[in-house]
Write a structure and sequence with these properties.
CATH superfamily of the largest domain: Radical SAM ThiC family, central domain
CATH class of the largest domain: Alpha Beta
Cofactor: [4Fe-4S] cluster
Distance between the termini: 77 Å
Keywords: 4Fe-4S, Iron, Iron-sulfur, Lyase, Metal-binding, S-adenosyl-L-methionine, Thiamine biosynthesis, Zinc
Catalytic activity: 5-amino-1-(5-phospho-beta-D-ribosyl)imidazole + S-adenosyl-L-methionine = 4-amino-2-methyl-5-(phosphooxymethyl)pyrimidine + CO + 5'-deoxyadenosine + formate + L-methionine + 3 H(+)
Largest sheet: 8 strands, parallel, barrel
Number of strands: 8
Shape: globular
Strand order of the largest sheet: 1-2-3-4-5-6-7-8
InterPro entries: ThiC (IPR037509), ThiC/Bza_core_dom (IPR038521), ThiC/BzaA/B (IPR002817)
Structural class: alpha/beta
Number of helices: 19
CATH topology of the largest domain: TIM Barrel
Number of domains: 3
Order of helices and strands: HHHEHEHEHHEHHHHEHEHEHEHHHHH
CATH architecture of the largest domain: Alpha-Beta Barrel
GO cellular component, one term: cytosol
Radius of gyration: 23 Å
Length: 437
């Protein structure tokens, strides 16, 4: 029997329950009817290119559990694809939901295809990064057709979502020149599109030929992630006219994608003061009609290089609590270097903490169950149960074992020993003598 639909959104609008939607409904403890309505309205997406074999599908939407993305990929200075694949599998084992391949050196296609064959997480790319590498020509010599053909290539390779910087236009050039931004454009893709427009005098091809790109995405059920070229790169630029003007345009582009049954996410900031995070989420939900919001952090201070996984987790928790659906992790290497395996691990753990905290705050069904089990395990001083519920059991066990108390190891830890409040309360409530000395 021929498939009745091209995209997950079209299937939802036809009332067809796809295997991917059924799998997501089970994970999220939602009915298929609830998910069908949310997907038909564009408020939930399931990025699932049929060419991605072995995909473990996940839904992205503010009313679902908050999802985590990990950026990986080689650069000219660190170009070991085997090491990147090790990071990919580390990320999957640590519970990440998506991998974005941001490789900017060498022959990128074999690695991209390997990801779409072997990695169960959703795979995303930024085609504009790959254009110069794919054609081995300088940016200014590329044509609009070259950019569109790379989008098609990535779709054919099996990627589930693509970041496209469609919202930046020639009008943005005048805005950037006239509005004295402290950091100008910090989006790598946005800066490439800006530079191409400046050199060629032409309009942004991702904006000018948007309908053709949507046709490619519809054919392969590739979710469009509308990139925020003008996201703020420092607190001083947060919520300025460049950022908001682009967001208005992204809302218009969201409507155009939905008209073709193409799934859409909208990307967001960036560096944002903590007191502006909630407002940014609310503005996006209004302008983009509830399309899932995908945020980088946001980072709530500019002065913590080496610790930006923490600044991003603070902002990410606030963002997700107020409507963001998808958090792009940030590692301790942000602003400094390509992340190594330990940086990746630290970034994922920080993002997962932020996502989980937000899910509890917004009342996602079942979000607090693990915390309640941890409370029971701590009251019983059941260390094995505590490790089982820990987000990172290996680290928790290693810390305890490295600093175990000399006596009473089965009950207390080396912080309090026999002064342990939990131990004292358990004994007092059961009528036992509380021995300290």
């Amino acid at each position: 029997m021929a498939k009745m639909y091209h995209t997950q959104m079209e299937a939802a609008r036809l009332g067809v329950v796809t295997p991917e939607l059924e799998a997501v409904a089970q994970k999220e403890k939602r009915t298929v009817e609830e998910l069908l309505a949310l997907m038909a309205a564009g408020k939930v997406v399931i990025p699932a290119n049929p060419g991605h074999r072995g995909l473990d599908p996940n839904g992205i939407g503010s009313m679902l559990t908050t999802k985590i993305n990990v950026n990986l990929g080689v650069s000219r200075d660190v170009a070991d694809y085997d090491a990147e694949m090790d990071k990919v599998m580390d990320a999957v084992n640590l519970g990440t939901h998506a991998i974005m391949d941001l490789s900017s050196h060498g022959n990128t296609q074999p690695f991209r295809r390997k990801l779409c064959t072997e990695c169960p997480a959703m795979i995303g790319t930024v085609p504009v990064y790959d254009a110069v590498i794919h054609y081995q020509r300088d940016l200014g010599t590329l044509t609009a057709r070259d950019f569109i053909d790379v989008v098609r290539l990535h779709a054919e390779d099996g990627v589930d979502f693509v970041t496209l910087h469609c919202g930046i236009t020639r009008n943005t050039i005048a805005q950037i020149k006239g509005n004295a931004r402290k950091m100008n454009i910090v989006s790598r893709g946005g800066s490439l599109v800006f530079a191409w427009m400046s050199m060629t005098g032409e309009e942004n091809p991702f904006y000018e030929y948007y309908d053709e790109i949507l046709d490619i995405c519809r054919e392969h059920d590739v979710t469009v992630s509308l990139g925020d070229a003008c996201r703020p790169g420092c607190l001083a630029d947060a919520s300025d006219i460049c950022q908001i003007d682009e967001l208005v345009r992204l809302g218009e582009l969201t409507r155009r994608a939905w008209a073709k049954d193409v799934q859409v996410m909208v990307e967001g900031p960036g560096h944002v003061p903590l007191n502006q995070v909630a407002a940014n989420m609310q503005i996006q939900q209004t302008l983009c009609l509830g399309a899932p919001f995908y945020v980088l952090g946001p980072l709530v201070t500019d002065i913590a290089p080496g610790y930006d996984h923490i600044t991003a987790a603070i902002g990410g928790a606030a963002a997700a609590m107020n409507g963001a659906a998808f958090l792009c992790y940030v590692t301790p290497a942000e602003h400094l270097a390509l992340p190594n395996r330990e940086d990746v691990r630290q970034g994922i753990i920080a993002s997962r903490i932020a996502a989980h905290a937000a899910d509890i705050a917004k009342g996602v069904p079942g979000a607090r169950d693990q915390d309640d089990r941890m409370g029971d395990a701590r009251r019983a001083l059941d260390w094995e149960a505590q490790f089982a519920e820990a987000l990172d059991p290996e680290t928790a066990r290693a810390i305890r074992d490295s600093r175990a108390p000399e006596d009473d190891h089965s009950e207390a830890c080396s912080m309090c020993g026999k002064f342990c409040a939990v131990r004292s309360m358990n004994k007092a409530l059961s009528g036992e003598i509380i021995d300290i000395l």
